[in-house]
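Hi R.,

Here are the chain sequences for the assembly we discussed:
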Amino acid sequence: MTVTSFFNRQTPVKFEGEGSTDPLGFRFYDKDRMVMGKRMEDHLRFSAAYWHSFTWPGGDPFGGETFNRPWMHGADPLALARQKADVAFDMFELLDMPFFAFHDVDVAPEGASLKESIANLNAIVEIFEKKMETSKTKLLWGTANLFSNRRFMAGAATNPDPDVFAYACGQVKAAIDATKRLNGANYVCWGGREGYETLLNTNLKRELDQLGRFLSMLVDYKHKIGFNGPILIEPKPKEPTKHQYDYDVATVYGFLERYDLLQDVKVNIEQNHAILAGHSFDHEVRLAYALGIFGSIDINRGDDLLGWDTDQFAMNVGELTLLMHEILKHGGFTTGGMNFDAKIRRQSIDPDDLLIAHVASMDAAARGLLAAEKMLADKALEGPVAARYAGWDEAEGKAVLAGERSLEQVAERALGLNPQPRSGRQEYLEGVLNRYV
Amino acid sequence: MTVTSFFNRQTPVKFEGEGSTDPLGFRFYDKDRMVMGKRMEDHLRFSAAYWHSFTWPGGDPFGGETFNRPWMHGADPLALARQKADVAFDMFELLDMPFFAFHDVDVAPEGASLKESIANLNAIVEIFEKKMETSKTKLLWGTANLFSNRRFMAGAATNPDPDVFAYACGQVKAAIDATKRLNGANYVCWGGREGYETLLNTNLKRELDQLGRFLSMLVDYKHKIGFNGPILIEPKPKEPTKHQYDYDVATVYGFLERYDLLQDVKVNIEQNHAILAGHSFDHEVRLAYALGIFGSIDINRGDDLLGWDTDQFAMNVGELTLLMHEILKHGGFTTGGMNFDAKIRRQSIDPDDLLIAHVASMDAAARGLLAAEKMLADKALEGPVAARYAGWDEAEGKAVLAGERSLEQVAERALGLNPQPRSGRQEYLEGVLNRYV
Amino acid sequence: MTVTSFFNRQTPVKFEGEGSTDPLGFRFYDKDRMVMGKRMEDHLRFSAAYWHSFTWPGGDPFGGETFNRPWMHGADPLALARQKADVAFDMFELLDMPFFAFHDVDVAPEGASLKESIANLNAIVEIFEKKMETSKTKLLWGTANLFSNRRFMAGAATNPDPDVFAYACGQVKAAIDATKRLNGANYVCWGGREGYETLLNTNLKRELDQLGRFLSMLVDYKHKIGFNGPILIEPKPKEPTKHQYDYDVATVYGFLERYDLLQDVKVNIEQNHAILAGHSFDHEVRLAYALGIFGSIDINRGDDLLGWDTDQFAMNVGELTLLMHEILKHGGFTTGGMNFDAKIRRQSIDPDDLLIAHVASMDAAARGLLAAEKMLADKALEGPVAARYAGWDEAEGKAVLAGERSLEQVAERALGLNPQPRSGRQEYLEGVLNRYV
Amino acid sequence: MTVTSFFNRQTPVKFEGEGSTDPLGFRFYDKDRMVMGKRMEDHLRFSAAYWHSFTWPGGDPFGGETFNRPWMHGADPLALARQKADVAFDMFELLDMPFFAFHDVDVAPEGASLKESIANLNAIVEIFEKKMETSKTKLLWGTANLFSNRRFMAGAATNPDPDVFAYACGQVKAAIDATKRLNGANYVCWGGREGYETLLNTNLKRELDQLGRFLSMLVDYKHKIGFNGPILIEPKPKEPTKHQYDYDVATVYGFLERYDLLQDVKVNIEQNHAILAGHSFDHEVRLAYALGIFGSIDINRGDDLLGWDTDQFAMNVGELTLLMHEILKHGGFTTGGMNFDAKIRRQSIDPDDLLIAHVASMDAAARGLLAAEKMLADKALEGPVAARYAGWDEAEGKAVLAGERSLEQVAERALGLNPQPRSGRQEYLEGVLNRYV
Ligand SMILES: [Co+2]
Ligand SMILES: [Co+2]
Ligand SMILES: [Co+2]
Ligand SMILES: [Co+2]
Ligand SMILES: [Co+2]
Ligand SMILES: [Co+2]
Ligand SMILES: [Co+2]
Ligand SMILES: [Co+2]
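And here is the predicted structure of the full complex:
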C-alpha cells in the first residue's frame, strides 16, 4: 500500500478488542465476526461520504475555511480533483471502508457549461473506475448536487424557471450514468432546494407537480438504462430552505403514493434530519419499514439543543442499538448501507481527526449491532411487545382487522364491555435496554 | 331574550365600527357586509367550542381550577349539564354565533357504563335539539372524546386491547348519531391518544392498521346512515402523547391514500397544531388545498416560544389575512368553518373575559377577511406569483409537465442552456402584505 | 418490617450484581462500595420525591387520573394523608432510600384557611417525625407549593396583590419550620408561577423587586431560626407560565447578585429544566460550580423532542457519567443530593412500576458514578483539557489574567504574533467517553 | 448627488404618505414629524449594517454566492474596498440613513499580518472620514470581527491559546480607535466564538475569567482614550457555537456584575437572538431596562419556526409597536439606535431589493412608533397595568418592599387573609393592542 503524505499512517486500522485505548484501533468492529449468520461488515455496510470528508473546507455561517487541505488550493481544478481522489481512496483503505458515496460536484469541478461539467465528472469517474479495480471499496450511491450553484437558489425540479428544471435533468442524467458505470447500489435524491423561503412568492401545488414529474422521468430513465438499484429520496424538513417538500418519511410516502412512485423509490434516512422534523431516528426507520419504503441510512447525529443540521459523527450507542435492532428485525440491509453523512467539527483540523472520527463511530455502531443481536436473541423487547398486543391475535381482533365487522356490530358488542387499562411498563423496558447498552 | 345570570349582559354584541373602543362591540365583524358576493357571516362561519368555554375549569399541569363555574360543582351531573347548556346557548346568543361544536363528554356526564353514557348524551342532545329550534346557532361538527378517560390511556383505535377499540366504536357511533340528529355539517376525529409514549412498547405498523380499519368502519357507517358531511381528521404532532399518527396534513394525506379514505375524509386544521409540527398555519392550509383534503379550521394560536398547545384566541391579523386569502382563493368554505378551539387564559376568570376574547378574535378574523378581499382584487400576491412561474405556461414547460418529455430529451436540451436566477422579491412582497394589514 | 398491602413485596431491593436480570435488583448500586474514599450511598445521596410518587394521580392536559391510588379517594383528607405517609415510608424502605423531599401540600390537605392548612401540615410532620426515628430515610429538603392553588395563579411573591405575597410568606414560614423540625438538609424554592403569561399586563421590574424582597425575608428568617442548610432556587424557564424569572442558572446568578443573596442561596438543578432552557444538564451543573452556587440536583430527564417538562426517570448513563464526573471533580455533594423529581409514565399503573423506575434510574446513576471515578483516575478528560489551556499557565498568560497587562501592551505584543489554531479533538474525546460508558 | 451605477436610482427615497404603493416611497417614515417632542428620525435613529448589505455574498451552508456584487471580484482588495465604500455611501444617501455600523473586516481586507490589517483598516477609515464630512450619515457603532478568521475558531478572548487573546486585543484596539476617530456613538462586542462546541474539551470557568479580563481591559482603554460612548455586548445564545457565554440579557447582566463592568457596559439587543434564546424581543428589551443595561437595538427578525439566525428585515408592526412603546416609556434612545442587522434573502439579487427591504422595514418601525405614541397618550396598557398592581402602592405593600417587614410579621398578618384572584385580562389587552396596530 502506498498512501499519499496526507495521513500520518500507512496501515489500515485493525480490530484490537474492547480493551484497546488506541483511537485508531477498533474495539468492537470486528468485520469478520458473524452476527445472525452474516459477517459484521456485511451487516453494517459502512460508507464514507466524499463531500464532508474531502470537499468541505470547515466553514460555517460566521467563519471561513479552517482545514486548509492541500487539494483545495491550486490553479488546476482537475489536478486538484485527482489529488483529492488519491487522498479519498487512501482514507478508504486506511479505514478498510467497504463503500463510499459522492455528489457530482464533490468529485469534479463544475465547468463553464453543463457539457464541460459532465466532461469533468466523467474524467474523474474514469479514475475512480481504475482505482476500484484494486480497491475493495464499492459505490453505495451517487447523487447530483442541485443546490449549491446559484442557478438552483429557487429550487431545481421545483424552480419557477423550466430551464433550471432542464439543467437539473442534465445533471441528474450524468450522475446516474456515472453511478451505473461504477456499479453503484443506489441512486439518491436530496431535495435541499426543493422547498420555499416564503409562501408569498410560491405556488406550492405547482411545485409539487414539478417534483413529481422530475422523479417520474428519473424512474423511467433508470429502467431504460437498466440501473438496478432503487432511487432513494432523503427527507429533510428545512435547511437550507425554510421548508422542504421531502419533510420526513411520512410526507415522502404520501408524495410517492400521489405520483405513483412507490414501486421504484424508497428513502434514505438521516438521524439529523429526523430530529429536525421532530422525530426520533428510530421513529423514522420504523415508519419507513412499516410503509415499505426503507432504503438506506445516512448515519450521523444532530445536537438535540440546536436547530440546524450539525451532521456530527454518531456516537450514541443506545440510539444505534435501536437502529440495528430494527434493521436486524427486518433481515438487514438489501441495497442500503450506513453512509457517514457526518463531518468532523471545524476545529478538528488534524488529518488524524478524520480517521479517529470514523473509527469511533464505526465502533459505536458495531457495539449497537452486537447489543441488538443479543436483544433479539433474548426477545428482550419483542417478547413484551407481542404480549401487549396479544388480544389482537385472537379471533374477534382478527375479524375486526380483516374488515369482517361493521361499526354497529362492534359498537353493539362494546355495550357489555368495561375494558381495564394495563401498565405500559415504559420504565421497565428502559431498564431492559440499559442492560444491553 | 332571557339569559341566565352568568353573563352581566342581556343583549348581543353588535357591530359598532372601527372607531369603537368597546371590548364588547365589533369593529370589523359586520355580519351582513358583502365580501366577494357573500355575507361576511357566511364567509367566516364562526363556531364556539363547548369544551374550552364550558368544560375546562382553568387547570394546567401545575395548578387546579381557577374558573369556579357554577355548573361545575354540584351533586347531580345531569342537572349541571343542563345548566351548562343554558349558559352555552346564552353565550351563542350574546355573540350572535352561527355555529358551535362539541365532544360527547363535554355536554353530558359519563355514566357507569357505555350504555349510561350514551343515554346521558342523548338526554342533552334532546335539549340541544329544542334550543336549536329557536336559536340561529347550528352545529358545525360533533366528535367523541376518546382520550380523557383512563381506558384510552394507550389509545382508542390504536389500543393494544381490542376491547378498547370496541368501546371507542361504541362512543363514536353514538357521537355521529347525535351529530346527524342535530344536522351537524361535519364529523371530526382528533386522535389525541392515537400515538405512542415510547416505541419500546409499541408495534407501530399494527397500530396504523388498526387506525385505518377504525376510520374505514366509520366511513362505512356514515354512508349507511346517510350522514352527508365529511369526516375530518384533525392533525396534531404530539401532546398528549410523545408522537401522534396524525402528525400533520402531509402525514394524514399519506395515511388516507394508504387506507383508501381520500374520498370521504378531509382535514380540520388548527394553527397551534401546525406550529407544533414545525409548519406555518398558511403552509398547512395551502397543502391541504393542494392535496384536495381541505375541510375546516380550528381557529386559535399557539405561542411561538412554547412547545405545547396553548390554544390561545387568534389575534394576529397578518396570519388571519393569509388564511382568508387562501380560503377565498379557493371559493370559501363549503361544509367547514372557523371553530374557536381556543381557551381564555386561566387567569381570565371574569365571565366577560369569555365574551371579550371571542369578540376580539372574531374582529381580527373579519379584518383579515377584508384585507384578503382587497389583496385579491388588486392581485397583490397572485400577480407576482403568476409572473414568476410564467415559463411553465409556455409550450415546452407544459409538455414537460404533461409527461411528454423524457429525461434524455430534457437533458439534451439543457446542454445549450445557461439559466440565470431571478430575484425572489421576498422583502418586496412582505412590504406589500404590510400595505393591507 | 411491616409494609402496607400496596406493594407486592416485603423486602428491600438488594444489590445483585451486573449479571442480574431482576428489575427489582440493583446491578450497579452497591451502597457500601467505596468510590474515591466514600461509600456509594454517601456519594449519590438519592432522594424520593413525595409529589410525583404519591400525590400525582396520572393526569395530563388531555386526560384524567390513571393511577387510582387508594389514598386518593376517601372522605377524610387527614386519614388519607396518613395512609399516603405509610405507603411512602414503605417505598423508602423497599428502595433503601437515604432521603426524601416534599412540598407542604403533598403531605397534608389544604384547609379552609391558612391556619388550618398549617395545622394539617404539622399533624403530618409529627407523623413523619415518629417514622423517621426508626427509618434510615432523612429529609433532603422541604418546600412550599406556591403554584397549585388558584390564589397563586398570577404568582406568589410576584403577585400583583400584596395579600397573596403575604399568604405565600405564611406558607413558606410554616414549610421551613417543618423542614427544620425534620432536620432537612436544604430548603428549596421553585418559582413555578413567578413569571408571566403576557407582558401586556406585567410590570416586570416591580415583580423582580418583589421576588428579591421575598427571598431576602426568607434568608433573614432562616438565620433567625438557625436553619443551617442553604436556600436553593430551582431554575426553570417556562411552564406553567410563559416565562419564569428563575430561567436558568445564569439568570439566577444575576438575580442573586442583584439582591445580595449570593451568600445564602444556591441552585437546585433539574435536567428537564436545563434542556427546556436550551442548555445541556452538564452545562448547568458546570456553570453553577463555576459561579459558586451549586447546591443540589433534581435527577430526571426530559424528552429532547418535546417542549414541556416530562420529568421522566433518568436512564441515560452517558449523561449521568458527565454529571457525576463534574460532581466528583468538585469533591462531591455537601448538603445536596439527587432527588428523583421524576414521575412514572401515566400508563405505568402497577405499584411495581414505581419501584422498578427508581431501581433502574438508581442503577444508571451508580453506573455513571463508577464510570466517572475511572475517568478521573485516568485523567481521561482532565488531561487533554489541561493540555489545551497550558499556555495560560505560563508567565504572560498569568500576567494577563492577573490584570497586569493593559490592552495597549497586549495589542503591541500581538503585532508580532501569528497564532496557529490547534485541533479541538472533539471526536477523539467523544470516543474516549464511549470507552467508559 | 452622484451615485455609482450600482443602484438604478439617483434620488433619495421620500415620504409619500400612507396611500403610496411605491415600494421605494415611505408610507409612515416622515422624518421631521414630531413624536412626543422629538423628530421621528431622532427617535428611530436607523442605522445601515455594512456587513449584510455589502460584504455578504448570498451564501448559506448549502450554497455559494448569489449576489455577484462587482466589488466582490477583482485583483486589488483595497480598490474593491474603496468601490464598496462608494456603493455603501450611495445607499446611505438614497435611504437618507442617519447612521451606519461596521466591523473592521467588513470595510477593509485582512492583510498578511495584524499590522497590515490595521493599516488597511485605517486606509478605509480615512476615506470614511472624508465622506462623512459631507454625508449626513454618522457612525452608530464600530466593532471588530473576532470570529471569521480560522485563528478564532476556538474563541477570541476565550481561546485556549493566550496568543489568540492577544491578537484579539490588537484587533479590538484598532477597531475602537477607528470608532473614536469617526465619532462613533457606541462600541459593540459580539462574542460569536466566545462559547464552546463541546464541554468535553472546555474549561468553562477559565474561559469566563478570560472574557471578564478582556472586557475590563477594553473598558480601561476606552476611558484612557476618552471614548465617550458605552461598550455594548450583543447577547446571542448559540450559532456559530453550540453555546455562547453572552446567552441573553439576564446572563450578560450576571456576567457584568461578576466582573464589575456594570458601569461601562450595556447591551445591544437583537430580535433574532432573543427568540433563539427562548425570549420575546419585548422581554429582552424590558429586562435590559429593568436591569439598567439597555443600550441599543439590532433591528431584524428571525423565523419562529427555524432554529438559526435568519436575520430577516423586521416587518412585524405589532412587535415593533411593543418595542417602541418600551423605548418611548423610558425616554427614547440615548446613544443607541436601530441598526439593521438584517440581510435580504439570498434570492433577492436585484440592487433594488436592498433598497426596498430597508424602506419596508423603516416604514414598519415608523408605524410602530406612531402606534406606540398613541398607546402611551391613551395609557392603553399603562393604565390597566398600574391598576393591577395598585395594592403595592398602599402603605403595607410599600413597607414590605422597603424591607420594613420580617417574614414572621407578614406571615402573621396572612393568617387573617383569604386573597381572591382577579382576572389577568389578557384577551382584553390583546384586543386593545389590535386597536392600535
Ligand atoms: Co444526509
Ligand atoms: Co444532515
Ligand atoms: Co383543535
Ligand atoms: Co390545540
Ligand atoms: Co424539579
Ligand atoms: Co421538571
Ligand atoms: Co446582531
Ligand atoms: Co442575528
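Chain D has two domains: 14-378, 383-436. Chain D touches chain B through 44 residues (CB under 8 Å).

Let me know if anything looks off.

Best,
T.
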